Amino acid sequence: MASTIVVSFGIVFMLIATTWWGIVVDKENRKSKG
Hints:
By secondary structure, the chain is an all-alpha fold. The chain has one helix at residues 2-33.
């Protein structure tokens, strides 16, 4: 039971991390272009 919670939490964390990273990279790209 505990392992399932850890795995699901890890998946959610990865989704948030990748989304946040995409936003940061997008902002940096706009700065360099502008």
